[in-house]
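In response to the reviewer comment on reproducibility (Comment 2.3), we provide here a single inverse folding case reported in full, input and output, so that an independent group could reproduce the run without further information from us. The structure tokens appear first.
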């Protein structure tokens, strides 16, 4: 068996199609098929059930893909550790980020890091919370910007920032002149929220449950900026973390109210796979991110 065959098998499992997998691997489709047949013969088991227009993993295939993924991750960690021994100023870091949160924190961190480590290539991966946790647990990102709680059990994390969560209401809302609001008063309010799969959606759901009700969701979005604009236009109320609140100079600005009865917060962390080797460059990036947060320079 060769490591490249592991990589090929993982891509076929991900794409569930030999043609698409071959295209992503920059191989001819017949060559990829021959490699997988060769691997199956060597192992003595069928890894893929070939159906018209679809590829499905067999039980043996699922076991193989799970172990192959771990082996490739260990090989990558070993390469990174050896690169650190030879020259820690060269290499690559794959950083996972949440869409809007990353847009606020990373622009301040990236230039500082690149000044210190000009030979390190930074690769950014932007995904929803659920998918980002899965990628990180598989070792497909070195570090990721995440929010608590983390669902994946295979992750460790270092705290980065704790910030208040506000209730955003339209400027003409009955609460708009208040200094704060109790969430228990919002039982009958229409809510604008993020779609499921976003960590902040789960936080919003849990806050309403803690206040004793299920939110009446009138609109779901993948983008918290859309949530803010819809709230400002009068479509409903919504939860907004302090980091992404808008200034009065912006257009479509809602009113942000502290939530008196729950005083909720959001905790951001840098997550990484448990037991994974972190390069010196990755550790330095974490240090830079924490300094930026401590200084409020974002």
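Designed residues, in position order:
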């Amino acid at each position: 068996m060769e490591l490249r065959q592991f990589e090929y098998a993982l891509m076929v499992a991900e794409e569930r199609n030999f043609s698409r997998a071959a295209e992503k691997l920059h191989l001819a489709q017949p060559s990829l098929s021959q490699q997988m047949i060769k691997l199956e013969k060597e192992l003595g088991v069928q890894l893929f059930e070939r159906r018209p227009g679809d590829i499905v993993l067999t039980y043996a295939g699922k076991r193989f893909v799970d172990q192959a993924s771990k082996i490739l991750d260990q090989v990558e960690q070993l390469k990174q550790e050896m690169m650190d021994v030879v020259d820690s100023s060269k290499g690559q870091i794959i950083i996972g980020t949440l869409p809007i949160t990353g847009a606020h924190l990373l622009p301040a961190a990236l230039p500082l890091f690149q000044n210190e480590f000009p030979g390190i290539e930074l690769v950014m991966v932007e995904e929803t919370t659920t998918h980002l946790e899965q990628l990180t647990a598989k070792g497909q990102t070195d570090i990721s910007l995440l929010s608590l709680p983390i669902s994946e059990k295979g992750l460790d994390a270092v705290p980065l920032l704790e910030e208040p969560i506000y209730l955003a209401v339209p400027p003409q809302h009955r609460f708009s002149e208040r200094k704060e609001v109790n969430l228990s008063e919002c039982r009958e309010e229409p809510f604008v929220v993020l779609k499921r799969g976003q960590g902040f959606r789960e936080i919003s759901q849990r806050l309403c449950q803690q206040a004793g009700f299920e939110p009446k969701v009138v609109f779901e979005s993948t983008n918290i900026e859309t949530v803010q604009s819809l709230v400002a236009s009068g479509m409903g109320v919504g939860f907004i973390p302090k980091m992404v609140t808008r200034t009065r100079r912006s257009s479509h600005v809602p009113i942000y109210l502290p939530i008196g009865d729950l005083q909720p917060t959001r905790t951001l962390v840098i997550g990484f796979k448990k037991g994974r080797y972190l390069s010196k460059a990755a550790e330095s990036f974490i240090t830079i991110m924490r300094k930026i947060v401590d200084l409020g320079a974002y």
